[in-house]
Amino acid sequence: MFCIFCGNSSKNEDMLKKCGPIYGSFKDCTKLYYLHENCALWTPGIYLDDNGWFKNVKKEIKRCKDSFCSYCGKRGGGLGCSGTNCEKTYHYYCAKLDNCKMDNHGYHALCVRHHSQVSKFKESTNFKDCKAELCYCEECKSSLDEDKFLKW
Description:
The chain is of the alpha+beta class.
C-alpha cells in the first residue's frame, strides 16, 4: 500500500512515524487508495467528521493529482502556502523539510518567504517551526490526540 499523496509505502516505518498510520482503502471506480493520517489532515479539503471519518478524500485526490510539490517536485503536493499570493504547494512532510512554519490546529503552512505573515492568522498562535520534534503514539503511529499524550 502506498499513500496517494506522498507515494511512500505503508511498510516504511520511518515515514509512518513522520506521516502517521496509513488509512484506507478509499474506492474510486475500480481503484483503491490509501493515505497517511497527516498527509490527509494537511490536505486542505479533507476533514474529519464528527465520527472521525475522513471526508472529501476523492475530491482532494483529483485536485492534488496534478499538483507538484515545490520541495521534491513529485505529484500529490496539495498543501499550499497560506502566504499572500504564494503558489508553493507541498506534501505534508516536504513542507517540514523545507522549513515551513506550520499551525497544527488551523492546518496552515507558511513557506520561508512568508514566515513574517504569521500575525495574519489572528485566530491561531500555534505555528511551530518544522524542525520541532514530531509527537506521535509509539503503538499506532497516530498524532491525532497529541494533546492527550503523556509528557515526560
